[in-house]
Specification:
With 436 residues, the chain is an all-alpha fold. Helices cover 79% and strands 0% of the residues. It has 19 helices and no strands. The N and C termini lie far apart (51 Å).
C-alpha cells in the first residue's frame, strides 16, 4: 500500500469538515442537554469519543522518533556537504541557523507579550485542565522543578541515545529526551558526511527508507484525521463552549503577525544588509511564493522555485539546486515560528508555566525541528506533537488548532520558500542586481 493518493485540498477539506462537525455537535450537546444528562455525556466523552479520537494521534506517536532521526540525519548530510560547495555551503548553513533563530525568537516574543493562551476565561481553562488533569498537573509540577541551565544543556548530548529515544515522551525522564535525539541525529548526519561515501551507502539507504516509511504511516494517520479531529473537537467543544473560538482567533492572529514580521521585516533587512534590493527580490520570487501558498508544500514548489531562481533571480544553477533542494526540507523558518507559537500557546491554555530555560529549550527544539520537518502539507504535525509531549502538554490539545492548520500551513509554507530563495540570493554573488 503506497502513500495516500487523496489530493491535498480534498484531505484538508475533510479534516476541516470533521472539525466543524465535531465542534458543532459538541456545542449542541454541551449547551442543549439538561444538567441531569451531563454525567452521561462526560462518560461518553471519556470512554468512547476521546479514545476514538486518539487513534490517529497514536499512529503519529509511533513514528515521531524515527521521523525526526531520519529527517535530521538526511537533512544534515546535505547541509553538511561543504566539500562540494565550500564557502557557499558554510554560508548556507549559517544563514539557515540565523533565520531560524530569528523566526523562533519572534514567536517567543509575541507569545510572551500578547499571551494568546490566556484569552480563554479561567473557568474554561480549569475545565480543560480538568479534562486532561493528570498530564497537566504533571506539567505544572515539572515546571517548578526545572534543572539548572548547565545541566539542561549537558543533557542535550546523550550518554545513551537509545534510552533517550525510548523515554522521549516519559514525563519522569531527567535526560535530554527528544532534544537529545535531535542532537544525536545531527552528529550522525555530520559524521556520515565526513566518512567515505562508499562506506555509508547502506546506512544512507536505511535512513532514506526509514523516512519514506514514516511518511507512509503518517499518510495512514491522516486518512483517519477527519474522524479523529471530529471526536476530539466534540470533546473540547462540549466542555468549553464558545470560549474556544475567541481563543483560537487570537492564536491565529499571533501566528499571522509573526509570519508577517519574518516575511516583510526580517527578510528585507537581510537582503538590504547584503546589498540586494528587496523589491526586486519579491518581484522575481512572486511566482514561487504564490505556488507555495497554494500547494502548502515546499517539495511540490521546488521545480517552480528552481526555475524562478535561475531565470528571474539570476542565481547560478549549481547554487540554486544545492540551496533550494536542501532548503525544501532543512530551512523551514515559517514552520519553526509556527511551532514555537503553537507550543507556547497550548502551554498557556493548559496553565503550564515555562521558565526561561524551558522556553529556550523549546526554541532550540523548534529550530532543529525545522531541519527535520517534511516539506509536505501537514509535515510539521508530528514534530509539534513531539515538542508538546516533551513539556508534557497533552497531545490531544493539538485538536484545538488542527482545523485552522490548513490555512496556517499555506502561510508558513510561503514563508519557508521565501526563506530558501533569500538564502540562495544572499550566498550567490551573481544573483539579481542590488538596485531595483
Amino acid at each position: 500500500m503506497g502513500q495516500d493518493a487523496t489530493p491535498t485540498h480534498a484531505r484538508s477539506t475533510r479534516i476541516l469538515f470533521g472539525l466543524v462537525f465535531g465542534l458543532a455537535l459538541g456545542l449542541i450537546a454541551g449547551g442543549l442537554l439538561p444538567e441531569s444528562s451531563q454525567p452521561q455525556l462526560s462518560w461518553w466523552i471519556d470512554q468512547v469519543v476521546q479514545p476514538a479520537g486518539r487513534v490517529f494521534l497514536r499512529i503519529i506517536f509511533m513514528v515521531v522518533v524515527p521521523l525526526i532521526l531520519s529527517a535530521i540525519v538526511l537533512g544534515t548530510m546535505e547541509m553538511g556537504d561543504l566539500r562540494t560547495l565550500g564557502r557557499v555551503g558554510t554560508r548556507t548553513l549559517l544563514l539557515t541557523l540565523l533565520l531560524s533563530t530569528l523566526s523562533v525568537g519572534i514567536a517567543l516574543a509575541l507569545v510572551n507579550t500578547l499571551s494568546p493562551g490566556t484569552a480563554m476565561p479561567e473557568s474554561s481553562r480549569k475545565a480543560l485542565i480538568s479534562t486532561y488533569g493528570g498530564a497537566s498537573r504533571t506539567s505544572i509540577e515539572r515546571g517548578t522543578r526545572s534543572q539548572p541551565v548547565a545541566t539542561t544543556l549537558l543533557n542535550f548530548i546523550p550518554e545513551n541515545p537509545l534510552a533517550e529515544a525510548v523515554n522521549s515522551f516519559n514525563p519522569e525522564n531527567t535526560g535530554g529526551g527528544l532534544m537529545a535525539v535531535m542532537v544525536f541525529s545531527l552528529f550522525v548526519g555530520f559524521a556520515m558526511t565526513v566518512a567515505p561515501r562508499e562506506k555509508t551507502l547502506v546506512l544512507r539507504g536505511f535512513f532514506e527508507g526509514m523516512f519514506e516509511i514514516s511518511m507512509v504511516i503518517i499518510g495512514f494517520a491522516l486518512r483517519l484525521a477527519p474522524y479523529g479531529v471530529a471526536c476530539l473537537g466534540f470533546a473540547v467543544a462540549a466542555r468549553l463552549g464558545f470560549d474556544l473560538f475567541r481563543t483560537l482567533g487570537f492564536y491565529t492572529g499571533v501566528v499571522l503577525l509573526g509570519l508577517a514580521l519574518q516575511q516583510f521585516v526580517v527578510y528585507p533587512a537581510v537582503l538590504r544588509f547584503t546589498g540586494h534590493s528587496p523589491m526586486a527580490f519579491f518581484r522575481g520570487a512572486k511566482e514561487a511564493i504564490v505556488t507555495a501558498f497554494s500547494t502548502s508544500s515546499s517539495n511540490a514548489t521546488l521545480p517552480v522555485s528552481l526555475r524562478v531562481a535561475e531565470q528571474d533571480l539570476k542565481i547560478p544553477p549549481r547554487i540554486a539546486r544545492f540551496v533550494l533542494t536542501v532548503g525544501a526540507s532543512a530551512n523551514q523558518n515559517g514552520t519553526a515560528l509556527y511551532e514555537g507559537v503553537t507550543v507556547l500557546f497550548l502551554a498557556q491554555v493548559f496553565g503550564v508555566e515555562l521558565s526561561l530555560t524551558q522556553q529556550v529549550v523549546v526554541a532550540l527544539m523548534c529550530i532543529m525541528a525545522g531541519i527535520g520537518t517534511a516539506g509536505v502539507p501537514g509535515g510539521s504535525l508530528p514534530l509539534v506533537v513531539g515538542v508538546l509531549l516533551s513539556i508534557n502538554v497533552p497531545a490531544e490539545a493539538i485538536a484545538i488548532i488542527l482545523g485552522i492548520d490548513r490555512f496556517l500551513d499555506m502561510c508558513r509554507t510561503a514563508l519557508n520558500v521565501t526563506g530558501d530563495l533569500v538564502i540562495a540570493t544572499v550566498v550567490s554573488p551573481e544573483s539579481l542586481p542590488s538596485k531595483a
